[in-house]
Design a protein that fits this description.
Helix content: 25-40%
Distance between the termini: 23 Å
Order of helices and strands: EHEEEEEEEEHHEHEEEEEEHEEEEHHHEH
Number of strands: 21
Shape: globular
Number of helices: 9
Length: 385
C-alpha cells in the first residue's frame, strides 16, 4: 500500500490492483501552455489551469489546444485539485498535469477514485504528483467501473446543484444591489460620493510582525486565509498568548459588525463581516487583513461589503509591490464610496440578511451532501454498492 495516502486497506478480491505508474501516464509533454497573463476575458477556447476556477481565461489559437484525446483528467501539482474535462481546451502554464490511462480503464471511474485520495497536508505549495505516484489503482471489470462511475456521477450532480443554489444567491444579491443603487463605479443615480475614511471611525490593519503561538490559549491571530467565501472562518487559525493578543487588540479592536478586508497578497479584496460571536472578541489580526469600522449613522456594513465585492478588481489593482502586492491603508481610506441615504442602505441589509439565512440552510445541506457523497465513494471503492 502507498506511503502517506489514505486509501482503502483492501479492495474486493476479484478486482485487480496495480501501482499508479502501471495504470496512469503523464501526458502533459508536447502541449503548449498559456500563461494567465496571456489569456483573454473572452475567446473561442477556455484555458484551464490548476486553480479553483473552471478556467482562467480564453484564447482563439487552436494550436494551443491540448492534444490528448478527450475526455482528460487534470491534476494540479501544487493545488492538488483534480478536474475532468470533456471539451477542447488549452493548458494553463505550470503545475497542471494531463493524466491518461495506460490500460482499459473508464476515465470517470479513475477521476472519482483519484478524488478519494488524501494527499499529505503539510507539503505546502510543493509538488504533489510525487505523492500521487505512490497510489495503487483498483481495476474491477470494465462493466463494474462504468456502473460505479454512473452512480457517483448522479450523486455528484446533486451535490453540485446544491452548491449552485448558493452561487445563485450571491448573484441575486449583486443584482438587487445594482438595481437599487446602480454600478458604484459609474454612479448612474448620482449619489453623493465620499472617501471611505470620511465614513469610518477606524481603518487599520493587524500586527506588522509575528506573535508566539500558544495552542489552546483561546486567543486567535487571524490572517487572510481565515477569510473564505466572504465569511470569517476560524479553521486553521493560530492561537497566541494573552499579552501579545492584548497588545495587537488595542490596535485592531475587532468587534462584531466590523468589515474585514484582505490587503496583502494574491487575495487582495476578499472581504467579510465579523460575525456576532464570542470568539470575535478574542480575535485579532495579522498585517494581511485590514479592519474597517463604518460610522453606523452613515454607512451600513452589508452595503459596504457589497461595494467592495463589486469593486474588488479596483482594490486589487491599487495594490503596490513587485513580489507581494500590498494595499496601503491610505489607499483604502481614499477609496470613493457612493452614499445613498442610510434608510435605503438598511433596506438592502434586510434583504441580505434574509438571503444569507436561507443560504445558511443551503450550506448545511451542502455539507451533508458532501458527507454522504464521500461515504458513498468509500463504499463504491470497497465494492459495497
Amino acid at each position: 500500500m502507498s506511503n502517506g495516502l489514505n486509501q482503502p486497506k483492501s479492495f474486493p478480491k476479484h478486482w485487480n490492483v496495480l501501482p499508479f505508474l502501471d495504470v496512469v501516464k503523464d501526458d502533459t509533454g508536447g502541449n503548449k501552455k498559456t500563461k494567465q497573463s496571456e489569456a483573454a476575458e473572452t475567446g473561442r477556447y477556455p484555458v484551464i489551469d490548476q486553480g479553483q476556477k473552471s478556467c482562467c481565461g480564453y484564447i482563439d489559437d487552436a494550436d494551443y489546444l491540448c492534444k490528448v484525446s478527450l475526455p482528460v483528467i487534470l491534476f494540479g501539482d501544487h493545488t492538488k485539485l483534480i478536474k475532468f474535462v470533456n471539451y477542447p481546451f488549452a493548458l494553463g502554464a505550470d503545475g497542471v498535469k494531463v493524466l491518461s490511462p495506460k490500460v482499459e480503464l473508464d476515465k470517470r471511474f479513475l477521476f472519482h477514485f483519484l478524488k478519494t485520495l488524501k494527499l499529505p497536508e503539510k507539503a505546502g505549495y510543493s509538488r504533489h504528483y510525487k505523492f500521487l505516484k505512490e497510489a495503487v489503482i483498483p481495476l474491477p471489470p470494465l462493466a463494474e467501473q462504468e456502473r460505479i462511475a454512473a452512480i457517483l456521477d448522479k450523486a455528484d450532480q446533486l451535490r453540485q446543484k446544491r452548491q449552485q443554489a448558493i452561487a445563485l444567491a450571491d448573484d441575486f444579491l449583486r443584482s438587487v444591489f445594482l438595481d437599487m443603487f446602480g454600478d458604484p463605479l459609474a454612479n448612474p443615480k448620482g449619489w453623493v460620493v465620499k472617501s471611505l475614511g470620511e465614513l469610518t471611525s477606524l481603518v487599520t490593519d493587524g500586527k506588522h510582525g509575528d506573535c508566539k503561538d500558544e495552542e489552546g490559549s483561546g486567543y486567535y491571530f487571524l490572517s487572510a486565509k481565515n477569510i473564505r467565501k466572504s465569511k470569517l472562518c476560524l479553521v486553521g487559525s493560530r492561537e497566541i498568548n494573552y499579552p501579545e493578543f492584548a497588545e495587537v487588540h488595542r490596535r485592531t479592536d475587532l468587534k462584531p459588525g466590523d468589515v474585514l478586508l484582505v490587503n496583502t497578497g494574491a487575495t487582495i479584496g476578499k472581504v467579510a463581516i465579523a460575525p456576532d460571536s464570542d470568539y470575535v472578541y478574542k480575535s485579532t489580526l495579522q498585517k494581511s487583513v485590514a479592519v474597517i469600522k463604518p460610522k453606523k449613522e452613515l454607512l451600513n456594513n452589508q452595503f459596504l461589503k457589497q461595494i467592495i465585492l463589486l469593486k474588488v478588481d479596483d482594490f486589487a489593482s491599487k495594490g503596490s509591490g513587485s513580489a507581494i502586492k500590498n494595499l496601503l491603508l491610505s489607499q483604502i481610506r481614499d477609496f470613493p464610496i457612493i452614499l445613498p441615504p442610510l434608510a435605503i442602505q438598511t433596506k438592502y441589509c434586510v434583504i441580505v440578511n434574509r438571503v444569507e439565512a436561507q443560504s445558511g440552510v443551503q450550506e448545511q445541506s451542502v455539507k451533508q451532501s458532501e458527507k454522504l457523497f464521500n461515504a458513498l465513494s468509500q463504499k463504491a471503492f470497497a465494492g459495497d454498492i
